[in-house]
């Protein structure tokens, strides 16, 4: 019975993590400027990857698997918080246009 409950929890975590990753991908494509794209990628992508890793930790089971996945989740959250301001500053200094991610050029 517990295996069945664990399988349902893992499936729900995987689906919700994939949904967050999909929202991040759609946000990157559909949002108009650099800062809103960064927001979509950083927030939804970090939560989505955290949920996927949490599901992997439950599926692996045992203390070692759960602790390993928890450490990777912590790396994702701390790395994202350290990377976002520098990426925004780089985009501001380069004056990237709204289509710079797709190779359309720079604004003047």
Give structural notes.
With 108 residues, this protein is mainly α. It is built from 3 helices and no strands. The protein has helices spanning 2-30, 34-60, 62-94. Helix 1 (2-30) packs antiparallel against helix 2 (34-60) and helix 2 packs antiparallel against helix 3 (62-94). The longest helix is centred in the last third of the chain and has 33 residues, at 62-94. The chain is elongated, with a radius of gyration of 17 Å. The N and C termini lie far apart (63 Å). The relative contact order is 0.12.
Descriptive terms for the model:
82% helix; 108 residues; disordered C terminus; elongated; 3 helices
Protein topology:
Blueprint: H1 2-30, H2 34-60, H3 62-94
Helix pairs in contact: 1-2, 2-3
Outline of this structure?
With 108 residues, the protein is mostly helical.
State the end-to-end CA separation.
Answer: 63 Å
Q: How many DSSP-defined strands?
A: 0
Considering DSSP H and I runs of 4 or more, what fraction of the residues is helical? over 70%
What string, H for helix and E for strand, traces the elements in order? HHH
Overall structural class, as computed from helix and strand content, comes to mainly alpha
Strand content: under 5%
Number of helices: 3
Largest sheet: none
Overall pLDDT score: 78
Q: Over the alpha carbons, how many angstroms does the gyration radius reach? A: 17 Å
Query: What shape does the CA trace take?
Result: elongated
